[in-house]
Specification:
about 290 residues, elongated
Length: about 290
């Protein structure tokens, strides 16, 4: 086990491990850390914890010191410079008629570099743009292309649930989400209902997928013929939270059709039936 200090560079960002310094830190304390890009400002989230050696990349960079008032003023100045830098760069993009969307920018703590993030449908030749930007900002310029999910993670927004997007708040890493997760949870495969602001599948589909994947093994399939206490019938609905099955039972003598809800324990079906493996490409045809 190795003692480390966990910090984040942005609220809701990924947790990074650094070697503890000589000072003692409390949670949410601002610190200066040594990174591959030089000294950076970070916020302590886990002052001192022990983690397994295989979860860290050695050698660990150190926490240099607790941030001073001057350091916080530097961060504030960098934040105040961003709107003007974004406006100027956007004007240059329009001047050069480049097909790219500017998303955000980030000034280095030491003021030697500024990174601009953008999205584009294809590769962009921005060499002339960088020359103009370097002449204006008088520092090193870096343009970094990101994906649509990364864009929403940076700018945030309100999802269909009425809360701020998970990727911008409580999800440090973007998780892999597949259309199969939506099918397993019994959700509509209408893209408009299962897509987030980025137009991709909602990240929250992965939250309960493990439960639904396990529960799906203990319930019959919709459309399957089962034996219920009131007779044989067809499964028309499944509630995997209540572990309840709705069965359509038809009396052939009287032609009366009735619907009954039963706990899964009262239903008899073929539990050893072979599972049909469906790829995401097969399921994508449904949504298309």
């Amino acid at each position: 086990m190795v003692k480390v200090t966990g910090v984040v560079f942005k609220n809701g960002g990924k947790l990074y491990y650094f070697a503890p310094g000589k000072e003692k830190y409390e949670k949410d304390t601002g610190v200066i850390v040594d990174t591959a890009r030089g000294y950076e400002y970070a916020i302590v989230k886990k002052p001192c914890i022990e983690v397994e050696e295989n979860k860290i990349i050695s050698p660990l960079k150190p926490v240099v010191r607790i941030a001073t008032r001057r350091d916080r003023e530097t961060i504030q100045r960098n934040e105040e410079r961003k709107p003007e830098a974004m406006r100027t760069t956007q004007e240059l993009i329009e001047k050069h008629k480049l097909d790219m969307k500017l998303v955000d920018c980030d000034f280095a703590f030491d003021g030697t570099k500024v990174v601009f993030y953008y999205t584009a449908p294809h590769r962009v030749d921005f060499r002339e743009l960088v020359k103009d930007m370097s002449a204006i900002f008088k520092m090193r310029i870096e343009l970094r292309q990101i994906g649509i999910r990364d864009e929403i993670k940076m700018i945030g927004g309100i999802g269909v649930c009425g809360k701020e997007c998970c990727c911008a708040t409580c999800m440090p890493d973007l998780k892999k989400v597949s259309i199969k997760m939506a099918k397993t949870q019994g959700l509509s495969l209408n893209p408009a209902k299962i897509s987030g602001m980025c137009g991709r599948l909602m990240c929250c589909l992965s939250y309960e997928n493990d439960y639904y994947a396990e529960a799906a093994k203990r319930v019959p399939k919709i459309g399957e013929l089962v034996s219920a206490p009131d007779g044989k019938g067809i499964v028309v609905n499944i509630n995997m939270l209540k572990m309840q099955v709705r069965v359509k039972i038809e009396d052939k003598k009287t032609d009366i059709v009735s619907y009954h809800d039963y706990p899964v324990e009262q239903i008899k079906f073929n539990k050893s039936r072979p599972e049909k493996e469906e790829s995401d490409e097969d399921l994508k045809e449904i949504t298309d």
